[in-house]
Model the fold of this input.
Amino acid sequence: MIASGLILYVGRGTFLWADDWDFMLGRFGLSPDTILAPHAYHLVGTDVLLYELLRATAGWHFGAYRVAMVLLQVALAVCVFIFARRRLGGWGATVLAGPVLFVPGHATLWFSVASSVASLVAGMSAILVLERAQAQRGRDIVVCALLLLSVFSFSLGVAFALAIGVWLAVAPATRRRLWVAAVPIVAYLAWRVGYSSNDQLTLENLADTPQFVADSAAAGVATLTGLGIAWGRLIALVGAIGIGYELATRRSLRTAETYALISLPLATWALIGLGRSATGPNGPTFGVGTEFADYVTQRFAQLNQSYSAAQSRYVYASVVFIVLLAAQLLVSRGGTRAVWLGAAVLLCGVVTNAIVMRDAGTTIRTVSDAVRGRLAAVELAAGTPHAAITANRFPGGVPATSLFLGHFDEAGFNHAVRVVGSEPVPLRVLRSLGPGAGQALDATLTAIVRPRLEAMPASPPRAAGCRVMHRHDWVAVGPANASIRTSGSPASVFVRRFAPSTASVQVGEVPPRMVRHLTIPRDRSQKPWLMRVVSSGSVALCSS
Done:
């Protein structure tokens, strides 16, 4: 309950952003093509179903999406607790399950990764059922169904299926049940053939995957302990050596469960690495230290000026898998000293992660303000003549738009508004938008409607209809006072509407000894535009 409340509090004021809009604006209905179409090369069927359900019931009210995400995270922590309690008892399980709820970064605050969390929940549930399955056909069917759900939700399900395949293959008595793991893998391969035609698997990925696996282990340990990437590398290396030593010297540890839990993170990291790890010319690029970069990345992993292995959504799964393996290894020791030592280390990690999570919430609120401002501009521009709004029409072009609004297009937006029956940012709240949202609104609206300085007729307005404008004056732009006359120096013209005075938008310049009329198309808001003119010479604002 405490962790749930903290996550909801940290995520206050956030909104749908980035990939969320690809689902909210681009996928409607429950046809096979809608559900099975890949997103970033992944099968994300659960995401499609969740967005469809929440959009139909909650519309644009993001609180419902946040609650659904928290419920998934709590369900995953409960699965980890049940797994660990069978081995370490209640207190030990609490110690290990706690960090799962405190993974910083967008993994806990971004609804678009709900499908990967659902994949973890389904995969964990399959493990829990398998632990108690005594070669009974009914339980095998349940395990297979849960693995199919995990695969249907995200590619992490393939790693779960492989790990359970290892579990069943180790003992001769259970090999006849390998179909339980084989069916989900075959289903995933069939989906790739039918729907995922663009394959990211390249030789560059294969060459870089070993480093990606090592970096993933280090990032997971760094997040669990809160000690940073350097210590994460060292602890991960010592841990790998320790696991090898334990397997070599303790026969009781060499069980099907142990081998499966070792293969689970390795399979996950290898599969992600094969698709995402390339650092060559075909590799994905990820900025480090950018304005909206993931805080968990800045804190824990700047890996060769990229952070693909340390993205929060990947670290989230790594934390879960490391915790499961720790529970399996600690039970063989049968003592409480190691548990309490681990508890002290993990407590430090939880405190660090809670602070980083708070910072991530601040960053995502900033992103959310920019999203609201951009959407409000689209809504206001609906009442003006303008070219079709696509991603490259927004300030910053496609790269910035993909961060805020995914692959936005106006037709999809208008369709979503008609389906939901309301707009994402109600016009009645525009005046209460924060400075960040107001700045994004003004910048986006000017980019869409394109205010312009038009040349006046040869005869300028009479001087009697003019007044001198001072450098810091802001005046409301209206039909009676929108013409600008310069003296011997050029003048730069700035406008703003919802943004603070420090965040105005320049719309052009007036040449020396010329008159220009500022034209801004009317839109759906009655709030006037404000104009400021900056020049080293005198400037007059004249009646048209």
Observations:
- Residues 278-307 have pLDDT under 50 and may be disordered.
